[in-house]
Structures are given as structure tokens and as C-alpha cells.
Amino acid sequence: xxxxxxxxxxxxxxxxxxxxxxxxxxxxxxxxxxxxxxxxxxxxxxxxxxxxxxxxxxxxxxxxxxxxxxxxxxxxxxxxxxxxxxxxxxxxxxxxxxxxxxxxxxxxxxxxxxxxxxxxxxxxxxxxxxxxxxxxxxxxxxxxxxxxxxxxxxxxxxxxxxxxxxxxxxxxxx
Length: 174
What we know:
The protein is about 15% helix and about 25% strand. With about 170 residues, the protein is of the alpha/beta class.
């Protein structure tokens, strides 16, 4: 939390507290809910802390959580998503794009991360972000790829990997 209090993030950036809260965007008839994690061990029990929603608004929840089998940080279940009452939940934690799902009347997205950082499986594959249009009667998404390159993992052997590396090195020299 200290780092955020020492940096001017601009008036359009909100850093949520560890309690579930919301920011109202009146012009869009939308409430964006979220909570902040300030240490690696912070967790929010979503079942016990789910807010009462005003259904007159589009209700969006930004959450650092994941579906089972990932239970190391604020786990959330399909049933909890379906019963949440939110119109849309955007969840972070797992670095692989897991698609857009619908549980009950709630759309949920597990977007992954916009850029791979290394060659671990979770960092591999196509990376980007989702452009989302949401209102009470419509939900549209478009995946925007950020790079033409992607980190790829393979079960190849060391000899083949060295030949590939040598070929790439030679191509870059020419």
C-alpha cells in the first residue's frame, strides 16, 4: 500500500483497499467493484464478503482469484460466480487466457496477462487484452493481440534446441 501512496497515479486510477468497495461511474450507469491485495498472503473470503448489489447499475467485479484447481489465492467457484449477481467478473491470477465463460447470468473472463515474461508454460502462447462492450442487454468481446511474437514451450531435445538457437543467431547476424 505504501508504494501507491507515494506515486501520483492520476485521478482516473483507483487503488482499492483490502475491503470490497466500488467506484461509481454515473455517466455509464456502472459500478466497478474490487479490493486490493497488498501482500503475497492477503486473501479475501469472497463468499463472506460479497456486497449487496443495486441491480439498476451495470455491476462489474475486478478480482484477483481463480477457479479450482488453483486455490492459492482467493479461490472462487463457478457457483459463487453464478450466485454473485454481478453482470461481469474480470479475474486475474492465472497467466493463461482461459476464455470468456457464463455462469448463471454472470459473464466471467480469465484474461491471462498481456505479455509473456519467460518460457514457463503459463507465460507461453498468444498474449494481448480484451476489448469488452457491456451493458444490461449486450456483452461483446474482442481479443487484441499485442505482439506478433509469442513464447512457445516444446518437449524438444537439447540438440534440436541448440540447432534452432544457432539458426536464429545466424539469421540475426545477416
